[in-house]
Write a structure and sequence with these properties.
alpha+beta; Uridine Diphospho-n-acetylenolpyruvylglucosamine Reductase, domain 3; Uridine Diphospho-n-acetylenolpyruvylglucosamine Reductase, domain 2; 14 helices; globular; 7-stranded antiparallel sheet; about 475 residues
Length: about 475
């Protein structure tokens, strides 16, 4: 089935580009550097395009309206950190590559309203720093926060390590400004927490990966800054013990538990092999967790973690542990967790999977996953992720002495096995990275048919010309 009526798209080069030169400032036209045609894993590559970098929402509207009239494809481009090919395409007539990097203003910070309004090109780390300067916390934290931009983060509904306490990007967005596929501007930057005036278009655009419009600015929810923070790494008996430990931590500490990360030994082995400069405080236990706390002025994170460790040790859940004695040590613990993806990259995965299952199913999924992969061949598995929200990064690697290219003929079988198992547990094959172009087929295979039909209808209604990021999320017509 197709997502839009079959229509022929046209090139952004030549006549279309010339027409825009009379309507946009010269600064909006950029040379097309290779980075705009690449994505981090090297699975996808664009071939050509017209790179435009508007500096205002009105300039975005001019571009989108012109593209709609000329039937030119538009691929929104944020920080280029997406892992599912949503920001590049190789099968379109030269599209507009719409970079949001010049839409980079912080429009407002309101500590009383506990909100800030930023443009789509603001880098996440900058947003975090601006919130801190205002005495508040913007809690969304992901590995690529030094380059990922707010527009892309919202367009993929990014998650990260603090979802357990604060939710996904969707939960941290109060309002949106966006340009719709006909070039009209949606003015929705209200900081209201309660607003039931019809359909909430904000939630339609968040997670749509640029297929229903271009997010140009957002009003984000801010939180009180924790006065006292702490962290611990604990070696656990097995993944089932991680769930019991999480429940124990939340019973004892409550909402002060900000993050709870599961780490398998294979990830630590990869760090020892490829990044020996990263210190491993617990050595390399078979399974461990990283627990992060953020408490008020009266809280004592070290004491809370010590009490948790003692109770968990007595219950047979943990076998060893290290509690951070300073902010520097806490940072060192997080360096371990945040270096695991880079270690993976240096080893080179055959097939990487961003999946989620019901939290209670995590131990059984990990056990069964080992079995289904073993039926395909002899591989190494690095399983790690966010226990508190059921999101696992389940990545399969070649054995030592072999490379991922040696297993090109098995990649699809591995992915299918992992995704079939995920689906059998009532899980999702796209937990936090989005669908992009990589998982279009998976969406068709695993998503409820009624949902898929509704998605196609929404796409056709809002973008009848099929210009907005064609081929991402929904299969391209034609």
């Amino acid at each position: 089935m197709k997502d839009t009526p079959t229509e022929t798209l046209t090139t952004a080069k030549g006549t279309f580009a010339d027409g825009l030169r009379n309507r946009l400032p010269a600064a909006a036209f950029r040379d097309l550097e290779p980075r705009y045609l690449e994505e981090p894993r090297g699975r996808w590559a664009g071939t050509d395009g017209l790179l435009l970098a508007p500096a205002t929402t009105e300039e975005v509207a001019i571009i989108i309206k012109a593209a709609q009239q000329a039937r030119v494809a538009v691929i929104p481009y944020g920080g280029g950190t997406g892992l599912v090919g949503g920001q590049v395409s190789s099968d379109l007539p030269a599209p507009v590559i719409l970079s949001l990097e010049r839409l980079n203003k912080v429009r407002n910070v309101d500590p009383v309203e506990n909100a800030m309004t930023v443009e789509a090109g603001v880098i996440l780390q900058q947003a975090q720093e601006v919130a801190e300067e205002g005495g508040r916390l913007f809690p969304l934290t992901i590995a690529s926060q030094g380059s990922a931009r707010i527009g892309g983060i919202l367009s993929t509904n990014a998650g990260g390590v603090n979802v357990l306490r604060y939710g996904n990007a969707r939960d941290l967005c109060l309002g949106l400004e966006a340009v719709l596929p006909d070039g009209s501007i949606l003015h929705g930057l209200s900081p209201l927490r309660k607003n039931n005036t019809g359909y909430d278009l904000r939630h339609l655009l968040i997670g749509a990966e640029g297929t229903l419009g271009v997010i140009t600015a957002a009003t984000l929810k801010l939180m009180p800054r924790p006065v006292r923070t702490g962290a611990a790494m604990m070696a656990i008996r097995d993944p089932a013990a991680a769930l019991d430990l999480l429940n124990m931590a939340r019973d004892r500490i409550g909402e002060g538990v900000s993050a709870f990360e599961l780490i398998g030994r294979m990830g630590l082995d990869f760090l020892a092999e490829t990044m020996p400069e990263v210190r491993l405080p617990l050595g390399r236990p078979e399974w461990s967790v990283l627990i992060d706390l953020g408490l008020g002025a009266s809280g004592d994170p070290a004491a809370a973690l010590e009490g948790l460790f003692e109770a968990a040790f007595d219950a047979g859940l943990v076998t060893d542990g290290v509690i951070a004695q300073s902010e520097g040590q806490r940072h060192d613990f997080w360096t371990v967790r945040e270096s695991i993806p880079e270690g993976n990259r240096r080893i080179g995965s055959i097939s990487s999977h961003d999946i989620s299952v019901p939290i209670a199913s995590i131990p059984d999924f990990i056990r069964d996953g080992t079995g289904v992969i073993a039926k395909i061949g002899d591989f190494r598995i690095n399983c790690f992720g966010h226990v508190g929200d059921g999101n696992l990064h389940y990545n399969v690697f070649p054995m030592p002495g072999r490379s991922r290219s040696d297993h090109d003929d098995q990649r699809d079988a591995i992915k299918t096995a992992v995704h079939d198992l995920t689906h059998s547990y009532g899980g999702s094959v796209s937990a936090e990275h989005g669908v992009g172009r990589l998982k279009v087929g998976d969406l068709e295979t695993y998503v409820d048919p009624a949902k898929l039909t509704a998605m196609r209808a929404i796409k056709a209604a809002l973008d009848p010309a099929g210009i907005m990021n064609p081929g991402a999320v929904l299969r391209r017509a034609g």
